Amino acid sequence: MNLNLKNIILYLGILSAGIFAPFIFPAYTFQMAVLWLMILFALTWDILGGQMGYNSLGNIFFFGAGMYICAVVQIGTYYDVAEYTAHFGAVKIDFTPYQYFSGLALGLILAALGSLVLAVIFGWIVFGLRGPYFAIGTLGVAIAAGELVGAWDYVGGGGGISLPTHPGEGDETALFFYILCFISAICTFIFVKWLYSTRFQLALNAIRDDEEKAEAMGIHTNRYKTIAWSFAAFFLGISGGIFGNMTGFIEPLEVAFPTVTFGIFMVLMVLLGGKGTIWGPVIGAVIFHIIKEITWTYLLGWQWVALGLLIIINVVFFQQGIMGWVQEKWPEMFGIEVDDLTNYNKESTNS
User: Fold this and answer.
1) What CA–CA distances, in Å, run from 208 to 49, 123, 201?
2) 253: which of 202, 266, 288, 349 lies 20 to 30 Å off by Cα?
3) What is the pLDDT of residues 236-262, one digit of tens each?
4) 156: left (phi over 0), alpha (psi -120 to 50) or beta
5) Domain range summary for the chain, segments of one domain joined by +
6) Are 114 and 65 contacting, i.e. CB atoms less than 8 angstroms apart?
7) Interior CA angle at 155 toward 188 and 254, to 5°?
C-alpha cells in the first residue's frame, strides 16, 4: 500500500465518520458540531502561531466580529436592527424560512469578508509588534472589542441580542448546524493543506526562523503576515456566524469574545497536538474537546483543575506536542530518515 492510498483511506474514513456521526450518536450532535469548530479554531491559529511563529491571543476577535456582522445582516436585511434590539423581549418577530436562510447565507458571506477586512486594518497596527508584545497587543484588541460592543446599544449592548430562530424542529436544527460546522472545518482543512503545499508556507517559515534575514532576502514580511492573518480571520468569521445562530443568543463577553475560554482553547489545542504541522491542530482539537466535554459533564467544579493538569503535562512532557513526540519516536512513519550513529562511529573508528 503506497502513501497516497493510505491518505485516501484516511480522508475517506474521516469524511465517513463526519457524515454518519450525527445519525449514530444523535444525542451528541451539538457537541460534535462544536468539535468541528474547535478543529477550525486550531487550524486557523496554527497559520500564525505554528507556521509563522506569531503567537496571537486575539484571534477570537474575528470570531466575535463575524458573529455580530452575521447577526446584523440577518436582522437588518428585513427589519430595523435598532428597533429590533430596543424591543428585545417585548415583541416577537417571526422570520419566514426564506428570510431566515437567505439572511443567514448573506450574513455568513459578509461575516467572512468583514472579518478579513478587519484583519487587514488591524494588521497594520499589531504587526509592528513582535514576540510577547504582539501576543499582548492582539489580546488587547479582543478584550477592547468585547467592551466596546457591550456599550453599543445598536446591537443590544451588554444585554445581548436574540437571533432569528431556525424554522425546523429540534433534531433538524441540530443536524443543520452540524452540517454547517462540518463543511466549514473540512473546507478550512483543505485550504490550509493546499496553502502549506505552496511557496507561501516557505515564506511563513522563513519569518518564523529569522524575520530580519527573511526581509534581507526580499520577502515582504508585513504583506505575508497580513495575508496569513486575513486567511485565519476569513474562516473564523464564518465560524462566529454559525456559532451565534447555534446558540440563538449572543452577548459580547461570554459568547462573542470569550478570551478566557475559546480564545485560550485555540492556543492549547495547537500546543497539545503540535505546532507547525497539518495534523497536530486536528489531533489536539479532538483530544482537548473530548477531555473538556468529559470533565464538564462528570467533574463539574473541577473542570478547570483537570484542564490545568492537562496543560502542565503538555508543557512538561510534550513540549513539541503529540505530533512532534510521535515524529521523534517513529520518524520512519513520516518518511524521515535518521542516520545510524552506531554504524557511523564504527566506520569512523576503522578509518
Assistant:
1) 9, 17, 10
2) 288
3) 999 999 999 999 999 998 899 998 889
4) left
5) 34-258
6) yes
7) 60
Question: CB within 8 A of 132, min separation 6: which ones?
Answer: none
Q: Which residues does the chain have with pLDDT short of 50?
A: 1-2, 341, 344, 351
Residue 189, classified by CB atoms within 10 Å of its CB into exposed (0-12), middle (13-18) or buried (19+), is buried
Place of cell 457524515: 19
CA torsion through residues 107, 112, 117, 122, sign: positive
pLDDT at 1: 41
As a whole number of angstroms, the distance between CA 351 and CA 340 comes to 17
Residue pointed to by grid coordinates 529569522: 210
Beta strand pairing status for 249-250 and 161-162? antiparallel
**What nine digits make up the cell of 277?**
504541522
Placement of cell 462573542 in the chain: 256
pLDDT of residue 128: 85
- Residue at 273: amino acid letter: G
